[in-house]
Each structure stands twice: as C-alpha cells, then as structure tokens.
User: Fold these one by one.
Assistant:
Number 1:
Amino acid sequence: MKTFDVIIVGAGHAGVESAFAVARMRGQALLACTDLGTVSYMACNPAIGGTAKGHLVREIDALGGQMGLTADSSLVQIKMLNRAKGPAVFSLRGQQDKNLYHEIMLEKIQANPNITLVENEVAEVVVEDGKAVGVKFVDGTEEHAKAVVLASGVYLNGRIITGDYVLSSGPSGYAPANSLTDSLVELGLPMRRFKTGTPARIYRDSIDFSKMEIQLGENSDRFSFMTKESVFEEEPCYLTYTNEQTHKIILDNIHRSPLYNGSISGVGPRYCPSIEDKVVRFKDKSRHQIFVEPEGLHSNEMYIQGMSSSLPHDVQEKMYRTLPGLENCKFAKYAYAIEYDCIDPLALKPTLETKAVENLYAAGQVNGSSGYEEAGAQGLMAGVNAMLKINGKEPFILRRDEAYIGVLIDDLVTKGTNEPYRMMTARAEHRIKLRQDNADIRLTEKGYALGIVSEERHQALLAKKEQMALIIKEAKKTVQKELAEEILAKWDEPMSRKTPTIEDLMKRPNAVASDVKKLLSFDCDDTALDSVIIECRYSGYLEKEEGIVREQKRLEDKLLPEDIDYFSIKALRIEARQKLDKVRPLNLGQASRISGVSPADIAVLIVYLQKTNR
Amino acid sequence: MKTIVAISTPIGAGGIGIVRVSGQDARKIADAVFFKKGEGVGQILLENPLKMTFGTFVGDGFADKGYAVFFPENKSFTGEDTVEFYLHGGVRIMQGAVATIISKGAVMAEAGEFTKRAYLNGRMSLSDAEGVADMIGAESSAGIRAAYRMMQGGITSKINAVMDDLLTILATLEASLDYPDEMEDEIMPALEQALPEVLARVRALAQSFYMGRIAKHGMEVVIAGEPNVGKSSLLNALVGENRAIVTDIAGTTRDTVTARAEVGGVMLNLTDTAGLRDSDDLVESIGVERAKSALKGADVVLYVLDGTKDTAPEELDTDGKIFYVYNKCDKAGFSVKTHGDNVYAVSAMSGQGVDALASAVASIYQEGGVSDGDLITSQRHVSALKSAILSIEHAIAHKNDTIDCVLIDLREAYSSLGEITGATATEDIVNSIFTKFCVGK
C-alpha cells in the first residue's frame, strides 16, 4: 500500500492546486473527490481572472501553480481590463472552455506520479493525539497521511434551492457530501452556512444574438509567465439588458423567492447579488447589464451572467424571456441558489492550518471564500504549508504588501467574513506594489526556494530581471534631440527644455512601449520593458508606498507570544480581549487589523510586550 | 498598578475641593480615613456605590466633614476602583488629605495619569483622551467648554460628516476599478465636483484650529506704539494691577512685559513692548527688536497712540488684527485721528474706555464664526487634518494620473482623518461600495 504525505479532500480549484504543490515538493498526495467530473469543474461562470482575481492567477502562476497555464490552454477569449485606470489595476480576464479546462487538469493530475486521484467520498477526518492522521471514507475504508487538507468547496450538506423546491445536491447535479460536517463539528471546528448562486444556461440556438451587443476580446496577454505562444479560436460574448418588464415580473413574484420568504438561511455574497436582489435593493435603476458568455468553444450552452436567481422555474422562464435576444430562449439548466457548510476562517492560522486540529488544513470555499482563483490560491498555500509542517520547516506566509494571496488569507483569518469572500483590488492597500506585471518578481524566487517553482521558470525570471537591469541602465542615456521631438510629438506630449533621457520619456503619461523599445540598442523582452516603464512612471507613488510598508512592518515584526493570556491583560477592553483570544494574531500588525481591536488596545499590547520583554 | 491620588480641583480656589484616589487599594484606603457617624469602620462605601456619603475625613492631625463617593471599576472614569472626597477647599485640608492617603499606601499621581489610566483601561478613545487631557490643561472657561464639547463628540461628528463624503468618492472610484463594466460614468463627477467640495470642508476644519488654540492657550495680545504713549499704563489698566513700571520718561519699558487677563471667558496673554523707535541705547534697541518679533506672533495688536498729539499710525509688520487705541482721552486737546470700527478712545490712567476695548478684543474669538463645539484644539488633530489636505490637494493636482494613483492619495487622506476617529479605509470602502452601488454579477 502506498503511504501518503498529504490527503486532500476535494478536487476542485483549491484541492487541485494543493495536490500539485504537494507533488512539486516531492510529497505523495492522495486527492479524493466524490466524482471525477468535479475535478477542476467550473461550476459557475466560464471565466478565469477579472479584477483582483487576475492578480491571484498571476501569483499562483509565479509560485509554480497550474491555474494560469491551464487557463491559457483553454481560452476562448481574453482581455486586459482597466487599461485606462492604471497598471496597479490592470487585470486579465479570460473566457474559458470549461470542459477543456477540466479535461486538461484531469489529465495532468492523472499523469503526475506523486498524485493519486480517487473517487470516494470522505466521511471523517481521522485524528490521533490532536493531529490529523488520515481520513475515513463513506465505505468504511481508511487512508493515512501526515496531514489532511480540506477543500470541500460547496459540497458539504449542499442544498440547491429554486422557489420552494429544495434538493439535497452539490453544484450542477453532482452529489453532495453529507457526512463530513458532523466529523468537523466533533473536532471543534466552528461551522456555518453560506449561500451562493448561479444563473441559467440557455441553449445557444434559441438566442437571437442580433439583438445584443457583441463583445470581443483583445488577444494580447496571457495568464502564465511561461506561456509564450498560444493560439486559440475566439468566441464572442454578448451584452443585453434587463428592462422594466423584467423587473415587474420579479417584483410581482418576489414572495416566491426563497430569499424573501425565509426558506434560505445561508448568507449570500453582496458582490454577487441575484437579479431579484438587484431589483429590490436598487429600485431606481431602470436596467441592469447582462452578459451572455459561451460555456465553451462551440458549446451549445450560454451562461447568462447577471441573471443569478433562486426564483421558481416558471418565473425564471418569464423573466429571462423579457431580455432582448432571449424572447424565445430555451433553458438547458435553470438558475439556482446553493447553500453549504463552511468553516469560520477565524478558526484558521495564517498557514491555513486549523487551530483546533494540528496538521489539518483547509482551503477554498470551505473557508468562506468564493471564486476559483481565491480557492486556487489558498489550495496552493495550504499544500505548501502542510508539506513544510510535516518536514519540520518554517511556514510560508505572505504579507499583505507582498501578494494578493497575503491579503486574501490575512483578511480571512484576521477579520473573518460574514459572506462568501471575494478578492477585490480595493482590499489591497498596497495595490500599487502588487501588480499583475510583477507577480513573478515578487514571488517566483520565494517559490523556487520552497521547491514549488521549476528550474525553467526560475531561469525565465532571472532572464527577465537581467533584461530589466539592462533597460534601466540604458535608460539613463540621452535621446537625440530630433528623435525625442519626433517621439514626443507623436505621443502628443510637449518637448522638455533639456534633451530628455530614455527614462524621462518613459515617465511621460502617454509613453508607448513600442516606441521606447526602438530607442534601446538591444531587442528587449516586452514584459520586462513594460515593468520598467511602470516602475519609472510610478516611482513617486512606489516610494511613498515603501515608506508606508516600512512603517507597518514595524508592527508586523513585533511578535505576540503564542501562549499569551489576553484575558489577564485588564487594560484591554473586554471586546478586544475576546477578539484577540479568538484570532490569536501572530504579531501586532495582524492584531491591529482585527475588527474590535482599537489603537488604544494596540498601545496596551505594546506596553505589555515591553513589560514582558524586560 | 499602584493606587494614585491627586487634588482634582484648583488649590486654594473655591470653598469645596476634590481629592481623587484611583487604583485597586482605593476603597481600602478610603475605609481607613473616612468614617460615617454611628457606623463602624469599612464597608460604608462599598455598600453605597455611586452615592454621596456624608461623614468625617480623619487626616493626620486634622479632621474635616465632607462627602465621599465610591465608583466601582466598571463605572469609574479610570476603569479602576475610584473614591472621590469632597472636602473644604483650603490648602491645608487638601494637602493634608493627600498626605494622609499617601501614608496609607497611595502614590502621588503624575500629570494626566488618571486620563492615561482611563485610556489604557479602554475607557476612552484616543480622541476622548485628548479631550480630557485638554480639559485638564484648560486655562480658561472657554477652553473648558471646547474640551467638553470635544468629549461630547462635537469634533468627531464634524469630521465624520466630511469623511462620509470622502468615502462616497473613494467607493465610487474603487468600484470603477473592481467593476470596470459598471461604473464608468461616475468617475469624473466624483473627481471634479465632489472632491474639491470635500477639500474646502477639511480646510475649514483645519482653520478652526486657530480658534481652538485661543480657547486652549489664550489670545496673544501685543501692545505696541511709539515711546511714552501709555502702553504700560494700558497693560496695567487691562490687568487691573501695576504690572509694568510706568514713568513719564520715554523708553522706560526696555524689555517685553507680559501679563494675563481673563475677559468674557477668554484668556488674553498681554505683552507690553518697548516703544518703537530707533535708539542708540543697546538695551533699548534689543527691546525694540523683541517688540517687533512679538508683533509677528500676535493675534491682536493694540496700537497705542497719544490722542493729544498729531501722529498718524504707521504700518506694522503683523498678521494680527490691529486695534488703534487713542490714549489720554481725558486730556485736553484729545482727538481721534482715524476712524473705523477698530478705533478706540481710552484713558489708561482713569480706566475710561478700557473695558469696552477689552471686550472688543475678546469678542474676536466669537467673531471667528466658529462655535465652541467645532473647535479643533489638539495639535494631533491639526496635523491629521493638514496631511489630509495635502493628500487631497495632491490628488486634485494629479487627477489626470491614472485612478489607481489618485486613490493612493485619497485613501491616505481618509486614513489621516481616520486617525482622529479610528476609522479604517479599506473596510469602510468595501462596505460602502456594496451599500451604495448596484455592482456584481
């Protein structure tokens, strides 16, 4: 019998990245799922990336993860969002062929000698002496390992709801996992119920696209730093709108919505409201945007983004058919809301290990997050930390100023969340540093040191850094006056009094990389040049940000003892004592971000630390 | 922490004085020094928390009748067991009571220590604590009012209102980044209309610091003019005592002389200066230099002129408000040479017109158009407001930079203001996006 290092429960976006990370660190991973069809299954929209999520994909990729590569191989459209709003918020979004994505991942997992994929439902986490040592399946068999990663997605006690029809089910008709929750409760994990939803899938041949606006991609960038050339057949998306009639049907039938008649108890996400939520909450909005996206290349199913709903099927049919182009639409799958059990992430350490059970980790939607990318990022981190732990090494924790992944996990384990947590650029206070263009510079070397980044990827990073250094050096050169005038005129920028250097030109707001490139004596890599131009143009802001980060780091460096008894520090307000005891922050920086801990409480902790250090 | 004691009222002023004891031994100490007729020692205060108990304070070598109140730790200002004694306010009794309490195991409180403990025990926010600190340091009744209003949240609510509007701008811009398809039309109005309005309001708040400083430290009033026009006499008349030496000899006042007077609740910090003239006398010329530097820091200048002589006022180098004071109005040949609402006729010798002048000076404080509750009194608040102003100005000046950069400044501005109220940018922005806008799919 094979012995495993890590057992991963669930083979969705979190579980799969976890398994790959374990495998790269030369661990043996057992990846268990309820159905092979659920492997890397995109249960909701057929897209990867988007604002902030695109950053996560780049970071997963920079750390040697699989998501970006597979997404690049299953594109039907790709676009860089926010081009006019600044490099910090450039975000890649790709429309994916969701079956192809699943198939590529399944193939890669099955081909990996360090990963064993099985179809068997886990019923219990086996714990000995407070440590997770394996899992028990519903059929009574057991498997043992040194650590367990929970990545159960939305499957725990899943319930699908439309109107007053409730079905015990996972997403898209996959079976729910109804046994594991009891075991987790018994282990002392605080469980709760969240809700999310998905819109209907409509048959392509029942849609009149001539009544909609066509939406095309731009086919310039790719997710992975390692994807050099890739060709794909593009599929357009379409835009249509709801109207007064749609809203009237919804409002007339709102009493039949489980969200409004009280039969849904789970907390839903505010950023992903159902159409009935939007119509009720924003009554003065006369129309809402609805995007129609293909589920895959030549797929006959179209995803109706923006029309998530838990209204009964007959109401769904009526309201969908009010949209221009959908007058005669036929439903392949109805929209539904889904409720599921998840863990309160405050019960987790920044390594994603549970506080209640040693060597038990959790990642993805089971931690109260939402989204493929958020799940993938956590899966990778949980896999890495599980391996580090069982090998007796220091944990791998990313700070908020190092990665969106750091922001994501810190938010979850420090602030907790009352709804499925979605990554947003607004959550990243050091956004200008955490760009998608420099994810490799920020993270690849860390990943290499951990053993999760391949030699090839590492070499690619070193080459890019070398290129950047060369460009920066050459950028000090003055540009010939006539040439500078010509370029500036082309950019619609005034000529400077002094003859500019290449760097001066790079700093101009209207600078165009391809023109700058011609000024260099060597043929440089486009991504390296882009990064240099961004760093030049934003140097003022970046320096300012560095100052803030240094300031914050002073607090991050003040470690709080693990065994600190917050209840004995009477100078702390009672709420602060309770919150600090619950979160048990690693350092003062993390403590300062806990809601309910005031600056005065931090002052008290500083005094306390000084006292105890004496 | 040790139990601390201090006299909480001005020593020697007022018929009743308060001695406050705070700390874990406060009640034990109180039981040892305070007795109620007909009752045994101890337990009296514990059984009657938050009630005034009449009894006898038995000090070392004296006894005084008065009241005591016990505040249990969850009901006290400091968050510790506290006992306050209300005794007769004489110096001997007050100091005797403190000495007695110290002999029972307490230590003398350092300046502001009650407040510090209240703060460390989580009994007040940073902003509250500063309000209390200001109250302790309040130097005049106007200062006390401002400090009191700040504790009541006067400042906090003003700042909160501005922050709300700034937050809407932030949320609008942030939403446009996280929801690129949905918020495009909202960007320019937020930057071009709403932001300058917010800036104007933050500036107005910062300007009220000027008034806050007067409330807290008093108004700088400099008496200036040529030699021998009666500047020192005017100072003495305003103070009501012979503070400055007065002679008929021009140039008697060689150095600046200061004195304080409270008028209408406002503390006037009066500075008498050497007469402004070119002098060969080294000492006098240094005095003239000092007079000039005093003028620069003045809130108000009383420019004294001799009404019996024919001299026109000269231009003074000051940012303060100038009052033209024609002295010697009781003398023959007196006339006022200039006219306006800032021209006064007085007689420093007889006191005629001096009260009217003093009231006019004090009224500048109210004329600022800011009521007590709006005063920014703390230096920390001012610097927070100033950095918010700089950030917003930078954002406006660079509004053609990309939005991700503009937002760095605006988030910084919000955080600066949040230092006063304890708000945090990121959390507030994210919540605001979902409350205000219909975004998401």
Number 2:
Amino acid sequence: MSEQLIVCRGLSKAYGRKTALSGVDLEVGRGRIVGLLGPNGSGKTTLIKLMCGLLQPTTGEIEIGGLPVGVATKAQVSYLPDRMYFANWMRAVDLFDLFRDFYRDFDYEKAIAMCRSLGVEPQDRLKTMSKGMKEKVQLVLVMARKAQLYLLDEPIAGVDPAARDFILHTILTNYNEEGTVLISTHLISDIEKVLDEAIFLKTGKVMLHDTVDHIRETQGKSVDALFREIFRAQPLEGGEF
Amino acid sequence: MDWKLTDDRPIWLQLTEQMTRRIITGVYPPGSRLPSVRELAAEAGVNPNTMQRSLAQLEQDGLAKADRTAGRMVTQDTAVLEAVRRSQARVVMEQYFHAMAELGYTPDEATALLKEEKL
C-alpha cells in the first residue's frame, strides 16, 4: 500500500479556453478528514471530479492509492456529487438496492439504520421528500460504503444548521478509519472542528495546505477567519460594493 | 459539562485543557476508564485524530495511562492530580491579583479584602 492516498502532479484542467485548475501538486494521506476550501469558481468541484474519474485531466496526473484513476479506483472511492441525480419515483430503499448491486463495499443494513437516525423513512418516495431530506439520503448512500476515499462535494449546503451538525456527526462516526474524507465547502466555520487539514484553492491553484491546528497555532486565528482574510472580495476595476 | 471551543487557539490544546479539568474535578474519577477516542470525539464534535492528540498529551502529563486491554484509565496517583489542581488554582489566583492590581490594590490589600468578603 502506498503511503499517500491521493497524489496529484502538475494537474491542470481547462474547459476550452477557460482554465479551471492549473499545476496542482497535492498529497493527502490516509485516515484524514480534509477540507477543500475556496470561493465559488476556485476549482473545488473540478478537482473532485478529476479524482473520481468523471473528468480527464488536460495535463498532469492523479493517483488514488497508487493507481491511476480508473475502474479500479472507482471501487475505492465514494463520491457525493454537488447535485441530485435520482429519479423522483424511486424510494430510498430502491437506491440502496442499486448501490448494493454496484458496490461490493455497500452496507445495506447500515444504510437503513443511518436513514432512520437521520429521520428519513427508507420506504418513502424521493418525490415526497424535501430537498434537505434528499440530501440526507444521498449522504447515506455515500457513507454506507466502506471506501478508502470519500469525496463529498458540498454535503451540508442545503440543510438547516441543526441537521448540519447531525450530518457532520454522521460523517465522523461512520467513515472508515483508514479512509480519508475530502469535504469541499465554503461553510468553513461549520466544519472546521472536524477537519485535520485544510486545502485552500484560489483560481485553480493550491494556495495553502496545512493542518487546522497548525494554522491556528501560527496564525492565531481560525481557518474561517483566515479564509475571509485571504479571499476578501476585491471590487473589480475599482468598482464599489 | 459541555465542550467549549474558541476560534483563536489550536483545538487539541483546548480539548486537553477541558479533559484535564474533567479529570481533576472528578467528572472522570481516579482509576476510572476514559471513554474511547471515538466516543469523546463524537461528543465534542471534533476529529478523532485531534482528540487522540489531546489524550496523548494527558498521558504525557501523567493524568491518564493507556491500558492494553481496557483503553485509557485516569491515573490513581493523587499526588499528580493534586499538583495539576494546584497549578490551575495558581492561575486563578494570579488572575485575581492581576485584576486587583489594575484596580490599584497591592497584593496584601487584595488578600485582606478577599478574607473580609468571604466572612
């Protein structure tokens, strides 16, 4: 088993003439909870999609557990997309059936139990669920796998603050101990306490990659405060807010 | 007792302080088994690795011992517990004298006042 779980070397991605990521070098170890932080359009979702093989890099390479991203790595990566992709007529249990067929590491019983503890009835149709409840179902699907790498793209954006804490609790108590969780978000203050490390992305480049405690130690402020300082919005061309 | 985490300092340090306080005030009595890293982390809503680091610090401070079979135990060495309790008391006293000095009281006056108020 290779030392680092995620290795990116000179990773770049352009959509036509628009550059989303440029020259990202990154190493992330195992058993960590890592925050992928950056303002809108900084490349968070692009980086995550490259890691789960939904996008191909323009240049550079990316390895998960020592293997290039492909069929073998997909079996080890559990991905929570930033949008919903379910058919409305389905029930949560239908999705669990589907996932059980697809992924060898999917724990059906655990999914049912997690659903109940999040207050979602597994027999309900998605059509009857609120946006927040659907997000919870989606999170259950992802966390009920025993994966090496969990890629969570904005897992807490759509739910209320109380449910947010509960979801973070679910992530903390359900992730596989050798597995790494990568969470992209801009709601930093909500998740700061659960993170080991933070990665700051700015216009497609890694600005900072450090442990949360080290950031607090050296900067004397929270990661959230540092983020606000670094990414303070600059009015364009001398404009005013 | 709730966990209070502030923004300006490393989380593991704050966890260590609060665990220390729980131990010296008997929330976790001498010789008792501490909850597991995962339980404590979930309770405080923090990362297990962070909690692990603070428990390692407790071991270094002599307040807890790792036991191969039973997890972590609170020390039974009352001398260690008393020493830590005393050093925390010293911090409180220093704060008192410092605040009184700002109000213009000498340490002797501050001590005298304290006795008076208590009666």
